[in-house]
Every structure is written in structure tokens, then in C-alpha cells.
Amino acid sequence: MQLSVRSSHVVAFAVVCLFAFLPATASAAPRWVQASPSGGLILALAQAPAEPQTLYAFAHPGGLFVSADGGATWQSRAGFPSADAPDLLVIPDDAQTVYAPFEGSLLRTRDGGHQWSQIRPESQTVLGFALDAGDSRVLFAATQTGLYRSPDGGDTWELAAFAGAQVLAVASDPRSSPRGSVLFAAIGSDDNDGRMTIWKSADHGASWAAGETLEPQALNVPHFVLDPARSGTVYLLLLTDDDGVLFRSADGGAAWGKLATPAGVRDLAASPDGTLFLATGRGVARSDDRGDTWVRPSPAAPQDAITRILVSTVPQGGLFAAGGAGIWKSGPRGRSWEASNQGIVALGAFSLAAAPTGPDTVYAVTGAGIFRSVDQGADWTRVNSFLAWPYPLAIQMFDPRQPRTMYGFGTDGQADFIVKSVDGGESWRKLPLPFTCTGSICDVGMDGLALDPENPDVVYVAGSYSYHFGDSGDFLWSSGDGFVTHRKLHPLSDGIGGLFIAPGRNGALYAPACRWLYKSEDTASSWHRAGRGLPQSLCSNVGWGAQTLAIDPRDPQRLYFGTGGQGVFVSSDGGATFRAMNRGLESAQVVSVLIDPKNPANLYASVATKGVFRWNAQPRRWTPLNEGLPLPSFQGFLALDPQNPSILYAGTSDQGVFRLNLAEP
Length: 665
Known about the structure:
four-stranded antiparallel sheet, 56 strands, elongated
């Protein structure tokens, strides 16, 4: 189910091929429909104080989503002009007015996110912003050259304080009397050495007093959190690239102490009774003692890397958490969580696989984990979180006798590995292989995996290894006991891009490489060159999750090969010779070639960003099947339901899974 080369497989999810080819003649075709798991990476989340059932969320990719029913359902807003919004702020008295940072500027919408306008102080780079807690018309902007104030919601601006200084963050204290009279600001040092001083104003910013200077921190924009239950307690969260540092002041911001926290901190929120909730890389942590100790995320916490945490006003103290898988909802203490994503479709689907037997089941590997559907994508269940270890980046094979037994490829950044699941993807274990990177600086790459169709306990695996300051080479093994023992076979050293076994007893084994197609008829003990008539270069970077060689299940001598720049070629003599079969795809880099197991005359090919094509015997050309498919984000990953081959699935990098029913008129 894959074709990859060592130079590209680690980044298989990001491959987009831009080879151009002659356009195919458009023909009537059924329409692709979105049939994707809900969710996606959420960067920002906000609730409207005036209408607590209204929430805003920003997904990457995917853009802005709005809920009018407390997060039960979401609708996309197409008007936001940026790919990212790291924060959203809804003003207290108008649920339709929202602010968002944008490339050093500020954006504002007054119609619930349909249209946005830029409102930053002229020629200033905005680092942070806040509303005056006593007057929502008053907006403060922290910039690289001072603190600016707008009396009219961002229409006009004036310098308010700290002229020429780098203001990193600003916050208005709603607990102060009169409301909003107390402001806090974090000011960077003149030496730009990472130090910052916390300043406080008790008179709406007319005058300021310096507090403690904090030692250098590798930080992004600081974030103030005010304890609703304790008027003198203020928290300051400083974010690094992969973690956060939390400080607490018990005297209104004059002195600060560093708090110990769980790893992977990304956000902090306080409930009305002063309970703290921390967004971490493994769920939500809670503190009942102002951050002195933390109740670590439990198995009931969202199995997600949480990026934002929000204390809801309805119900009082209820919680929303947002992370890599989407949005989660909980009661006041955060003891149990449920997904609240319906309508948010912002997951990339980077590997698709359909079970060969048993109940109709399709799997999608996404950035949030592995999802499974048993109703052709109408509903999905997340069966494995990306926080679980090990896990696959691509599903490669099913055991044809036991479709809940699956194999996949994963990586830890240095060493690729094989994982196996026997419970339909809910848990995975790493198969032992002779080459690993334990205790050594090295690279190990998995390039091919195949099961013997007559004895699926026998697994073949091919790859390469390179120990820094040591030896390197290619490997090819087989094993019938999960690689507890293995048989060393004759490897190839020509940039192998997959392993494929023909059906039937003693089926031939094929290995596409950069210069040749290799064939073995003795279970990989020896190889000979095949593929006369194929292009001179077969190197491809389509990555894991692709399938570039399809073998006719009724005639194992008939092969279809998707090339890296000249479309599809066909062989009728077991791969000895090939001829072009590429009208309509003459210059295409083919990612997948699929064959209908019930009617081998039905052939399909996919090309990244160009779409899905079907072979028409008359007029002998590939014609597009792209109605409804978002081509710019289609990476070529395709699956055909072998039990119901009128159903095709396509994966996109930002809108999840699409389904095509070829039986529909």
C-alpha cells in the first residue's frame, strides 16, 4: 500500500507534487462529498460574555468557526484573511464584535466573523492587546514602541505610556474599583536580553509603578491571568516554543515567584472560585491551591495536546479545552470530557485504508490520531490518539484473514519502525527489528512492507540504515513470528520504493527502485531486473500511504505501474515489459493506482493537487473524477472499499476525508 524513498518518507504527510499534465476531457461523473471526522488543531477559543452560547474557534488549517449553541455544533466563517489566529477576544456587551491578532496587527469584526478590518496603531507592530475591563470601547495595544490606547474600539489610537519601550503584554483587572482602573504591563529590557519588568497602574494608565524584573526567559508573548477569588493574586504565563513558565504574585504584581508545573504548558485559566486549569501537552491539569501543586491529567482527561483552556459562564465554571484533535467540553472540575466538534472539519487525512474482509470499515490516519468508520464515513470514532506511543503515521497492510490485524509505519524522528495492531487500531505495538537507534545517533528508514497472501503470518520488510560515524546499508528481512526471529534476504540498494506480492501460490515479489523494477520468484532470495519499457527514472517522493503498483487479482501477470512523472504503464507479462497507458496523465506523478477487485477493468489513478482519474477503455484515456474534491489540498492518498468497490475515499490536507459513490447517477 505504499511507495516511498528514503529521502522523503519521514515527511510523507507534507508531500504535494506539482507536476503539470495535459488536461483530460471533462465527463459527467458523480460528486465527491465530505465524509470526514470532526475536529482539527485549534489555536484560539473564545466565548461571548453577552451571549454565552456563542463561541468562536480558530482551526489550523480550516480557519474560523462559530457556534451558536454552546459548542454543540459549529459553522465555518470564510471571511478571516489569515491562515492563523493565535487569540480571539469577544467584547463583553456585543457577541458580534471580536478582535484577533494578525501578523503584528489587529483585526476586528462587528458582524460575527463575516468581515474583518485592520485597526492597529499606525506603523506599529502589535505584540498583545486587552480591553479596558470597565469600558469595552477602550482598547489597549502592546507594541514594540510603547503602549497605545484607543477610546473607540480601535478606530483611533494614541500613545498612552512607555514611549520607545517594548511592551510585551497588557491586562486590565476587572476586580479593581472602579472597574478596570488597575492595569498590568510587561516591559522588555532596553538591552533586549530577555529580561522583563512588570509595571502596574492604579489610575487607568495615567501613571505607572515598576515592580519586579524577571530574569531572562525564552518567551513568546506573556499572558496575564487574574485570580477571580483573590484580589491580590496575579499569574503570568511565559510561553516558550514547546513549554511554558508560570509565575505568581500574591501582592498585586510587585513581587513574583516561579511555580512548578507539569510539562508542555500552553495556557492557563482560573475559575470563579480560584481553581486553576492548565493546558498541557497531555491534557488538562488542575490546581486547588493557587498553583502550589497540580492534579495531573488523568485517563479521563482529553487525550489531546491542549492549546487553549476556557472557563465557561454557562454552566458556571464549566470548561472548554481546545487542542490538536479539536474542542472538548467538561463540567466545572474537569473530571470527564467529551468532544464538542460537530461541524469543525479541519483535520488532514494522510493515510486511508479499507478493511479487505469483515464489516465495511475504513480508517483515516490524521494529525489527531486514527479514526474508524463503519458507515462509509457518516460517523467516525477516534480509536487511537496521537499521544499514544507507538502509533503509525500510515497504515500499510491488513491481514486478509483477520481484518482487525493491521500493520503500519511510524517514526521517532531518527528511526522508522513497524507497528502492529490486533484490535482494529485501538492499540499498537512496535515490532522488534535488528536495526534501531537506541543509544546511537543513526537513521533507520522503512521503505517497503508486504504480507505473503498465502501465509499472512509471513511479513517482508525492506529499508535502510545509517549509523553516524559507522556503517550503513540496505536491509530486507522476512519473519513469520512478529520478528522475534527473522530471515535475512538479499537486499536492494537502488532506492527501493515499496514491496508488492502477486496473489496466488508462490506469487512473485516486486520492488520498484529508482532505476529499475525488480522481481523475485524465490521469496526474495534473489532478484532480477524487470520493467523494460518503463521510464529511465522511477524515483518518486510520494511517500508512505501511496500505492504505485497494482496487480490484477484475477491475472497476476497483469501489472499497472504509476510513475513519477509519466503517468501509468501496464504490463501483461508479469512485469517483464511495459507499455504506456497514460493518455490524459502523460506528465503526471502518480501517487496511487487502484484496481477494482470485483471488476479489474475498473482502474483508478490519483495525482496530488490534480485529482482522481478513471481509465476509460473508449476512448482509451484517463478522465477526471473531481467534482466536489478540493484539489489544492488533495495529496493523492486514495482508498477503494474492496467489499464495495463503487466507493472511493480521498484524503485532503485540510478538509479531511471525501467519499465518492460511483454507483450514484
